[in-house]
Amino acid sequence: MQLTTSYPQLNTPVFAPDKSKINGDFTHKDILSLDQFTVEDLHTLFGLADEMKQLVLYHRPSSMLAGYVVSLLFFEPSSRTFASFASAVKRLGGETIEIQNPETVSSVSKGESFEDTMRTFEAYSDAIVLRHYRPGSAQVAADTASVPLLNAGDGNNEHPTQTLLDLYTIYKNFGRLDNLTCLLAGDPLNSRVIHSMMRGLSLFENNRVYLLSPEQLRLKRSDLFYWGERGINIVEIDHERDIPAYCDLWYWTRIQKERFASPQEYESVMKRGFIVTPELLHARAGKHTIVMDPLPRVSTVDPAVDADERAVYFREQIRNGLYIRMALLALVLGRA
Ligand code: NCD
Questions:
Q1: Minimal-distance CA residue to ligand 1 atom 11
Q2: What's this model's pTM, rounded to 2 decimal places?
Q3: pLDDT tens for residues 37-84?
């Protein structure tokens, strides 16, 4: 199928896999893509996240990151990713430099280059957490800064720490990450969360993904073939009636307004958006289907669904983001 050319079609950068693979050693690694992880790496992270959860639940003081400073540089808005990284550092006894909107409050506003900004913050901190609207910016920052760079979302490319917390949530619910039937809905073309999730799911055997979206927001054809080659069984659908009755999870993403060329284009696609309602859950979900959303919720899930015990976005995903980011920081800074 031909995609409408007026939608953003940014190239997904290809990471040099060998150089960046974790392969059991997180220390001093940049975290840019889900492609860096093996199944064993994920389990190492999940095991430590379990411990971090206990630490948080019982308010155990930790000095794991005492003496460490982490810079949070967010060139795009964020609530959960920003606050959970900040909380993660502080829960482990470290300090943060927190800058949201560097383009208005830092020397970026005077015209400083992106690379010079990275060179500055590497001097003041032991790791940099970066969110940026440009796909591939995390790689550029990692190439520039000598301290570990954690990608907190780069344009429509990837959002690896979101997927790590999502995989952890799925694992905690089902005890496995293979043989899953998943429904990923919303904006496969532009959602960096879906792009990282596809990479994550492709690490495991026999996963089937139904992608529900308006036709204009389907995955790039090259991505569709790439992930198909990697073993995910992908089915594209554009109507709720085609949602299979036996999904393990529904993962809803918002249509990414900020990636559209004009408000009019966004509005026209929104007309055929999909929303999880109690009625849709009743009609098409299973008793054990979990409902996930990376949030913010913008025309994704009806608030009437929040009370349903299958809804895990508030109860589990947000909190798991804290535990996973604590674990990741401890591992990357060699303090686990
Ligand atoms: C996601 C993001 O920023 O990509 N949000 C998040 O980090 N929890 C999803 C989104 O904004 O749609």
A1: 296
A2: 0.93
A3: 999 999 999 999 999 999 999 999 999 999 999 999 999 999 999 999
Q: How far is CA 134 from CA 56, 112, 190, in A?
A: 34, 16, 12
Measured in Å, residue 67 CA sits from the centre of ligand 1 at 30
Cβ-Cβ contacts under 8 Å for 267 (sequence gap 6 or more): none
- Cα 278–Cα 166–Cα 246 angle in degrees, nearest 5: 45
Active-site entry in 12, 29, 53, 81:
81
> Measuring from atom 8 of ligand 1, which residue has the nearest CA?
294
3-class DSSP assignment, residue 154: strand
Q: Which atom of ligand 1 is nearest to the CA of 253?
A: 12
Measured CA to CA, the distance from residue 119 to residue 114 in angstroms comes to: 9
User: Please, which pLDDT band fits residue 19 given cuts at 50, 70 and 90?
Assistant: low
> Is there an atom of ligand 1 within 6 Å of 162 CB?
yes
**Contact 336/327 with Cβ under 8 angstroms?**
yes
* Among 195, 177, 298, 297, CA closest to 248: 177
Q: Rounded to the nearest 5 degrees, what angle is found at the Cα of 307, between the Cα atoms of 301 and 309?
A: 100
Contact 154, 134 (CB under 8 A): yes
Mutate to test the pocket of ligand 1, among 79, 159, 195, 258 (most ligand atoms within 8 A of CB): 159
Rounded Cα distance between 268 and 112, Å, is 37
Neighbour tally for 29: CB within 10 Å: 21
Active site residue 81: yes
